[in-house]
Amino acid sequence: MEDYSGRVIELVSRRKGEMLSMERLGDRTVIVFHIPSRGIIGLRNNILTATAGEAIMSHRYIEYQPYKGEIERRINGSLVSLETGTAIAYALDKLQDRGKFFVNPGDDVYEGMVVGENSRDDDLTLNVTKLKKLSNMRASGSDDKVRLAPPVIFTLEEALEYIQNDEYVEVTPKIIRIRKILLNETDRKRNKK
């Protein structure tokens, strides 16, 4: 566990945590931090990833403290659905270079729903319901197989950490989705100005 303690300290420090103590107990290293409650959201998964699943984390409320400052958030924008309908594998395949997706082919999407993370820092509205144009002419080699990267599936905690100020987390009995507060693209542009 000692090899991972530096990574854990770095992750917690980025979330405005202060290390109080660090001691070795057998083959484990016990590190105690004070961290704001908002810094804990999403931290568990990051620590488990950084420590290859070796970390054991617990937390409890101690006291109210003065505001510690802004906690860094994601810098990439969102991929937002332009249309309501069903996500199509053909459309997702053609748009893969734009970023990573949160939906599978066949999933229902609606206008204003966040369907992925943009590879750039601004939001991008795109149509994941677009069908392939069919013609009665066939060309050899034009019907390539669709190869999609697996979508990112969020837990509730991960979704709450992930969202930006203009997004909501939508929880239903079957799925957790992220959506824009203003679903219509025109309304979002108007509100931005």
Secondary-structure topology with pairs:
Blueprint: H1 5-14, E1 18-25, E2 28-34, H2 37-40, H3 43-50, E3 78-81, E4 85-86, H4 89-94, E5 99-101, E6 108-109, E7 113-118, E8 124-126, H5 156-162, E9 167-171, E10 176-180, H6 185-192
Parallel strand pairs: 3-8
Antiparallel strand pairs: 1-2, 3-7, 4-6, 5-7, 7-10, 9-10
Helix pairs in contact: 1-3
What are the salient characteristics of this protein?
about 25% strand; two-stranded antiparallel sheet; 2 domains; Alpha-Beta Plaits; six-stranded mixed beta sheet; OB fold (Dihydrolipoamide Acetyltransferase, E2P); alpha+beta; about 190 residues; 10 strands
Summarize the structure.
With 193 residues, the protein is an alpha+beta fold. The chain contains 6 helices and 10 strands, in the order αββααββαββββαββα. It has 2 domains: 49 residues, Alpha-Beta Plaits (2-Layer Sandwich), CATH 3.30.70; 115 residues, bipa protein (OB fold (Dihydrolipoamide Acetyltransferase, E2P)), CATH 2.40.50.
How would you characterize this protein structure?
- This protein is an alpha+beta fold and 193 residues long.
- The protein has two domains: 2-50, Alpha-Beta Plaits (2-Layer Sandwich); 78-192, OB fold (Dihydrolipoamide Acetyltransferase, E2P).
- The protein contains six helices and ten strands; from the N terminus they run H-E-E-H-H-E-E-H-E-E-E-E-H-E-E-H.
- Strands 3, 5, 7, 8, 9 and 10 form a six-stranded mixed beta sheet that branches. A two-stranded antiparallel sheet has the order 1-2. A two-stranded antiparallel sheet has the order 4-6.
- A hairpin with a 4-residue loop joins strand 9 (167-171) and strand 10 (176-180).
- 17% of the residues are buried.
- The mean pLDDT is 89.
